[in-house]
Please model this.
Amino acid sequence: MEKIKIDNNIFGEFLSAKEISERLVEMGKEITEDYAGKTPILVGVLNGSVIFFSDLIREIKCDCEIDFIRVSSYEKAMRSSGIVKVHKDVNSNLEGRHVLLVEDIVDSGLSVTYLREKLLKSNPASLKIVSLLLKPEQAKIDFEVDYVGFEIPPAFVIGYGLDYEQKYRNLKAIYSLIEERTV
Ligand code: IMP
Model:
């Protein structure tokens, strides 16, 4: 297994670029079928979803539009803070639209729940959630994710858009924390 050492934390390769791209083909197919005849608007949650988002939309074969919202929920840490701050809102009018909110990872579920409630205020025709990763054991509240790439254990992950202190988003694979620095 390929390992990376960051600040004395050891990360091991967890999902390869090939495994991710194969799963994205399946997800794209499912979304294409579910939205046949509609023009959904995909709202990417910046910054983490940017790589997943751009790969996923190219696997969606029906007409679609895109927009972005930028939030932060982790403050320089490897644990969920529960605090969601909106830095950039969507520009499109979502009223009457079929909206797909695209997340990189759902951990505690606090961010996605906040975003769902926020977007519902625009009265979309429908609102579904897509997330590349889901950590089911971490859920702090009840929520639903409609399309999940991979369910993963609670360990902190980086790469393919996911950061550690804003870095390592450019790794092609996803790496999981296997040994955490203790001092
Ligand atoms: P939640 O509100 O706890 O569900 O956290 C969601 C957000 O926290 C995600 O959109 C990520 O930006 C960040 N996050 C959660 N888990 C991880 C992780 O393992 N690595 C990197 N970022 C994470």
The mean pLDDT is 92. The domain at 20-152 is CATH 3.40.50.2020 (Rossmann fold). The first strand starts at residue 3 and ends at 6. The longest helix spans residues 17-34.
